Amino acid sequence: MTKPNLALFDFDGTLTHNDNFSAFLWFATPVWRMALACPLLVPLKWAWQQGWLSSAITRRSVTRLAYTGRRRERLEQLGQRYIAGRQQHIFRPDMLAKLHQHQQQGDTVVLVSASLNLYLQPWCRQNGITLLCSELSYIGNCASGGYQQGDCANQIKAQRVLARFDLSQYERIYAYGDSDEDLPLLALADFPYLNGSPYKKSTT
């Protein structure tokens, strides 16, 4: 029996035109809360732009400021509204076609993203895609400000895939990303692609 293929896709910047983590932050955060957080958000953004803070650290800090104490049901409702209202225009047609091609071939398609499950889960469920991503943690019914399994970027992307899948059970492994945070994911693949082009993995 022929083994299936495995296709691993990043989300923001790979399947989509834009950064949905930031877009959802502005969509879901009340104006009053954003105003209170601005004295901290502005220096965070500046430090990130200067390269003093990594994207992963910045995301964790912003998540804490924006979502701590907010009710799970409300955040999930906002996530569903966000993706429902934007899925017609946020996706790159060429990469969405590539994803659908893998599905039509019977490949196992997995979304591996540092973006949040709040808006990714509804879309993945609708399209029959397995999801590995950053997930908010909760204390009772309120967001704690942290993640259940860490920020799903860099090495954590590869770790999450390896914890979920036995790669020896797949004939070919494809991976698609757009940034340095995706390189550990691309390292798992027989056919890695960075920004739509074949990526030559380091042999060192």
TrEMBL record:
SUPFAM superfamilies, alphabetized: HAD-like (SSF56784)
GO biological process: one example: L-serine biosynthetic process
Keywords: Hydrolase
Pfam families given in the database record: HAD
GO CC, any one term: cytoplasm
Gene Ontology molecular function: L-phosphoserine phosphatase activity; magnesium ion binding
Alphabetical list of Gene3D superfamilies matching this protein: HAD superfamily/HAD-like, SG protein - dephosphorylation function
Classification via PANTHER family: HAD-IB FAMILY HYDROLASE, PHOSPHOSERINE PHOSPHATASE
Name of protein: HAD-IB family hydrolase
Organism: Ferrimonas lipolytica
